[in-house]
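Internal ticket - ligand job 238, glutathione:
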Amino acid sequence: MIKCYSWPTPNGIKIHIMLEECSLNYKVYGIDITKGDQFKKSFLKISPNNKMPAIVDEEGPNKKPISIFESGAILMYLAEKTGKFLPKLKREKYKVVQWLMFQMGGVGPMLGQSNFFHHYCPEKIPYAINRYKNEVGRIYNVLDKQLKGNKYLTGNNYTIADIAVWPWIIPYYQGQKIENFRNLYSWYKIINERTAVKKGLNVLSKRQKPGKEIKMNKAAKERLYGNIQRDAGKMKVY
Ligand SMILES: N[C@@H](CCC(=O)N[C@@H](CS)C(=O)NCC(=O)O)C(=O)O
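stdout (structure tokens):
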């Protein structure tokens, strides 16, 4: 069984979708990041960066438990465990890995900042809002170009690169109109129809609806963006 420590944000949703796509036996433990679950010692032991998602696979390599944090690493692990959504041949595999890394290093961090300055920053800072909106537009154009003539990000096959990027494109996280990016929009709609995607979007959705603003009081904002975050790296793990 795989224990999945998560919350329905884009980084969590990608793991929920992957677990469903691979029909894996899993149990979800909600890590409510607005309440500070990410700072609990038991969680920091498996995710020292105080961020979800993380997994523990009780039947890891050599039948021994393994814990993994960072959603890209989790997707690669699950793909290799099941033999799904990541080609084995090196040339094809690294096509997928490069788009997965593009999501981890570009799509996630930039759309995350855009989301922050649009929705959660206590001050309205036009320069920051505009800078990240432009960056989201640039990234959307890169994806849109890549999808021209390609059903999925790396060609004809649906892979962990699509699974990683898709939840970030859910309208609301953007600050851009997805309809203006034709290829990206049709790719978005195709993936939206997958049964596993629908099931993945349901995970923990009673506690936080995917694609909807996360309700945060002052204490929650302090936990996510304030001094608690500044000091979190010094927290004792063991
Ligand atoms: N690069 C990480 C990012 C994970 C991440 O940013 N998680 C956020 C929610 S989407 C989180 O747990 N935030 C809690 C915190 O910063 O304390 C991954 O892809 O797993």
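Auto-summary: The radius of gyration is 18 Å. Residues 36 and 223 are 7 Å apart (CA to CA).
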